[in-house]
Design goal:
By secondary structure, the chain is mostly helical. Helices cover 76% and strands 0% of the residues.
């Protein structure tokens, strides 16, 4: 009977390891680092003064402010929902549990443009609910409300999907112990459940916020592209670029790029400091 010598995959020859590493570095440099460097280079092509002038211009300030407002509303809403959904899914058994989990994942499989069209179909002037809301003086499409709804939809799963596997792995033993000692439901949640998932929650909120500020497809459909009123930063970049105002477009785009870099740094810091807890949220 022939025997084979087991060779761990990490024992490959140095040539193989160096080749694979160089391929990975070249790929990352070509498709990630080079475009990122190009954004900042184009943003500063006309000098620092032109860069800041493009950022403090009235429409740009409105776009930045609107982006912050939309994120400030959408992220807390999805945080509250994500915590509630994760708690119910991980800690309780109920009819329709698998359906709820599937619905939470729905925005991952639906194009953001399609989700924006759905809101137009529901709340537009010719939509199912549009005429009725219009009679009440309520407007959704081409308003901040529509932007918030579209952003909530596309960022819907981020917090819940971070917390559900983490809470499932932790089980219910600590909560049951707290209840047996006389703790109320809210006290159990604040003193036991929430502290156990705080870093996974922060990780999910961080990703949710980054996606909310950078969302383009869904908000593009429901915004109407009204300058100074319904244009977020990604939409403002598109308008400036289409007007051949490249320096201003890249200046505003560089703010989004800096947001991505800050998100990456914070994400890496969380993974480095609390890697075991966060990794538990990704095992499933």
């Amino acid at each position: 009977m022939s025997t084979r010598t087991y060779r761990p995959p990490t024992k490959d020859s140095p040539a193989v390891r160096w080749t694979l590493s160089l391929i990975a570095i070249a790929y990352v440099s070509l498709f990630l680092l080079t475009p990122l460097i190009a954004v900042f280079a184009e943003a500063l092509r006309n000098g620092v003064e032109a860069f800041f002038a493009a950022i403090v211009e009235q429409d740009a300030r409105s776009a930045i402010w609107l982006t912050l407002i939309v994120a400030a509303i959408a992220v807390p809403l999805n945080t509250l929902f994500g915590v509630a959904a994760a708690w119910s899914v991980a800690k309780f058994d109920f009819w329709g549990k698998n359906v709820l989990i599937t619905l939470i994942d729905l925005p991952f499989s639906v194009s953001p443009v399609i989700s924006g069209l759905v809101y137009v179909l529901l709340f537009g002037a010719q939509g199912y609910l549009g005429p009725w809301l219009d009679a009440l003086g309520i407007k959704v499409i081409f308003t901040v409300t529509g932007l918030v709804l579209a952003t909530v939809f596309v960022t819907f799963p981020f917090v819940a999907r971070e917390l559900i596997p983490l809470m499932q792995e932790q089980g219910t033993a600590e909560e049951e112990a707290a209840l047996s000692l006389g703790a109320s439901g809210w006290k159990m949640f604040w003193r036991v459940t929430l502290p156990n998932v705080r870093w996974g929650l922060l990780y999910g909120v961080l990703l949710c916020n980054a996606r909310a500020m950078g969302e383009f497809g869904a908000v593009s459909v429901v915004s109407g592209h009204i300058r100074g009123l319904t244009n977020t930063m990604p939409l403002h970049v598109e308008i400036l670029y289409n007007e051949y105002n490249f320096a201003a477009a890249f200046a505003v785009a560089s703010l989004l790029a800096m947001l991505a870099l800050v998100t990456l740094v914070l994400k890496s810091a969380l993974e480095w400091r609390y890697g075991d807890e966060i990794a538990a949220a990704h095992r499933h």
